[in-house]
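G., before I forget:
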Amino acid sequence: MARMKFLCDSERCIECNGCVTACKNEHEVPWGINRRRVVTVNDGKPGERSISVACMHCSDAPCMAVCPVDCFYQTADGIVLHNKDMCIGCGYCFFACPFGAPQYPQGSNFGGRGKMDKCTFCAGGPEAHNSDSEFRKYGRNRIAEGKLPLCAEMCATKALLAGDGDKVSAIFRQRVMSRGFGARAPGWDAAYGSKG
Amino acid sequence: MLLKKNTGAVIDRRTFLRRSGLAVGGLGLAAGARVATVRPADAAVAQPAVGAEVKKTVCTHCSVGCTVEAEVVNGVWTRQAPAFDSPFNLGAHCAKGASVREHAHGDKRVKYPMKLEGGRWKRLSWEQAIEEVGDRLLKIRESSGADSVYWLGSAKFSNEQAYLLRKFAALWGTNNVDHQARICHSTTVAGVAQTWGYGAMTNSYNDIHNSKLMFFIGSNAAEAHPVAMMHVLKAKEENHAPLIVCDPRFTRTAAHATEYVRLRPGTDVPLIWGLLNVIFANGWEDKEYIRRRVWGMEQIKAETAKWTPEETERVTGVPAAQVRKVAEMLATHKPATVVWCMGGTQHTVGNNNTRAYCVLQLALGNIGVAGGGTNIFRGHDNVQGATDMGLDVTTLPAYYGLVEGAWKHWARVWDLDYDWLLSRFKDKTFMETKGIPVSRWFDAVLEDKANIAQPDAIRAMIYWGHAPNSQTRQGDLKKAMEKLDLMVVIDPYPTVSAVLPDRTDGIYLLPAATQYEVDGSRTASNRSLQWGEAIIKPLFESKADHEIMYRFARKFGFAEQLCKHITVDGMVPEPESILREINRGCWTIGYSGQSPERLKLHMKHQETFDRTTLRAVGGPCDGDYYGLPWPCWGTPEMKHPGTANLYDNSLPVKDGGLAFRNLFGVERNGDNLLAEGAYPLGSEIQDGYPQMTYGLLKKLGWDGDLTPEELAVIQKIGGAKADDVAWSVDLSGGLIRVAIKHGLAPFGNAKARAVAWNFPDPVPLHREPLYTPRRDLVEKYPTWPDKKDYRLPFLFKSIQDKDFSRDFPIILTSGRLVEYEGGGDETRSNPWLAELQPEMFCEINPYDANNAAIRDGQDVWVHGPEGGKVRVKALITERVGRGVAFMPFHFGGSFQGQSRRDRYPEGTAPFVSGERDLRL
């Protein structure tokens, strides 16, 4: 059984936000909700790197562990999904998540959070595959159509990879090989300079 | 409500958000409504691609030419899929490309024709609009002459539309017809063509896979051409190719560079000459290549001798050690490619810059080889094609120019009487005089009439797919817009043109269809043509640009001439039929072999093309290069495969090989300008030769290879002077066919010119920018004297003579953001993009900010030396160096601190507004 994973290759990410709008487009995500975003470190300075971040569908997902109503579940492929009908919008998952993935509709009275929304790895939710109600609550279910997440499929530089973890790491390993061992691996530049 | 049903866009996103908790539920509503034309929204089912029709077109943003794959259900664009088969983008998109389906919503578009009357936008029918605008234009033509109407076309047109508008302007009787390329790469097109024959990108994005070094100067591909970076990063990783980025600003591209070179804005020539100084001093130039294929390098060597690394450092700010290091990298990594964009072209010395880049590559022997070339990334999806089609004040389609011979050639192609064409113009002089460039049209309104070299000022401005906020001198532009008799904006969006002038009357908005709503070909930066099919029908009441042209032509009484040999379906000229006419006329640049049938076949079988060479391996397009990159010589029946890399003589011409073009005579001051001992593989003449004429063919004894039909055409064109008929005006294509049969390049085999003697600076020289803060350099590197050109005065010295350095010590540069494009009217109206860049800003170095007591995030006024000002947010960052500030240019809808959003027709104001930048 495949184990689905995301990997963002920071040597390739150019912060073009293609992944972000692909997600908006595919799922009709409303203004203010960002299932995926691109984060840049050292902005404008040598060493600037960008990375596209969304729910990583962790193996031992902290959101699942802290949810008081137990609305999360993990598919056989390792995708972490949740049931919006059960979600009470408490925000615990947001505090637990290391990637800041959970999103909440903004703007209601008294700071109510509404139902949590996050990246589904384009795998919908606990409704009939690609039913109207699944689309309405969770967006499209590409996995059920035999397709991978659109953000990765449309990535401008193939920085964002999504799919079976073994295949994703095989692609990345090959890249690291052709770059030269250790090239740009974190810490290597500082230790050995650009001569390798 | 009818409109909403047609588009499938039901819910305004802001309203939607205000419904708070309903946001997620609302999402389903919006999606369900995509098929709401046939059933109530709440009962609609968001089905996946079952039964969807898949259509392919080309992204309308930059020039990479990404294929957009659209799924359409019942005429509604429901989904966008990654176009994995495209050899250009392999499924990839940037933020803009991944958001183009929003066009099918089109909430913010102009929905029907309107005019501004008494300060209010009033709805019109198309018939009324054409009648009223037409009558007013005809009146101006009668009282002030045809040249008082300015036809400003668009890089967003398809090739067919660009061609048709150029022809339309010719039939109206003016050369005042231009488009965006004027302010983008016109300095490239002129500078590069004058060096070796064609002014276009020599290789392709894909060919960068072969590069061993990539030298970017004034290009921020990561934001302006994101998908190009896929190819660049591949070369960086797999070839270990150094990526050198020269830019005053540490861009997103520079963040991936192996070597970042920060130069002072406006010092490109010194930097290049500094590199060549080191290259020549060490004998690293390719001497054999230069001997065989380049003229004038000795003169360059003499000039670069002055640019020691130390002098280069003094002028450019680049450390001498880095100059030496980069020069050595260039000498030791071949082939290397040079990439440039607006950072190089938008200067008073833009031509000098572009020619200097070319000379660098010639010295290194990097032109005409895979992995080398000058890869000039064009900006818009069809700016290459619109330039090729002559939406330009200096030429008819395909760079024939405006001379009598050019007009006679096109009169033959159009099957129109030359004297009738002449009668449309004021006189022969005006027919052959270049028009007023778009960058200066407003001066032709405001300037004293005595200084405008045409019968009257510009009185009507037709903004046909152009954003005014991409132009400089907004204050003057506004004044001119107010002084005009009439402004017509033909565009899917109202654009800044609709709201900038303080007018209460005399603006017409005519809704044009987007390229997603029409069929047609577009030319990517690498000269490949791609056929896009309409994904949906034109939304609302919008009409295809070519239909609007036809309707106006009918009003003006020349529809019959415009479409004499073009099929017209009702009011719509057929794009395929227009392309066939283009094929019949555009021999100079080989736009002759790309028939609509061949282009459609390529689009259908994209998967058969190699992703590096772009050549089809097997399948129905076997041997063709993808999109038949021009020149695709001869007739479509000749089946030339196109030319992937220009001037590559390692291939036969019939397989895409080429020599440098013979465009500047055969000798200069006794020097041979023809190539020496260099020739395309398989050439029967193993040396240089001039361009092909019937006379030359006879001398070579090959005239017998012409068919009787071809010979008859040549003789009819030439009459008594048949010997003078050149390959470029031979409507039979026979001269081209026979030349290629014998392995010859139809345009000759010459040397490239390192020195262009017909330019103000034959050897490109450094000249300090007009508003330079480096007064210490002005005496040694002064600008040119003032001059008159393009029917207007041009100021150089009189500006530079004034010292602005005390009050204006900071240099402002500008550029793109990845989320927006051009003036941004379209992209700022797309909620998926607008959300990502909600505000205009100005980047300021912490040193300058602290000296001026500016805090991050604060509103600041940015003033220019000519009195312009904008109010924007300060973004304090080391991304810009000391003494340099940066602003993006896509914003509009504010003027000098005041919002003009209330002037948009109801419901059409973009999500995001802001001040445009203040380039000078």
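Chain B touches chain A through 67 residues (CB under 8 Å). Confidence is low (pLDDT under 50) at residues 1-48 of chain B.

More on Monday.
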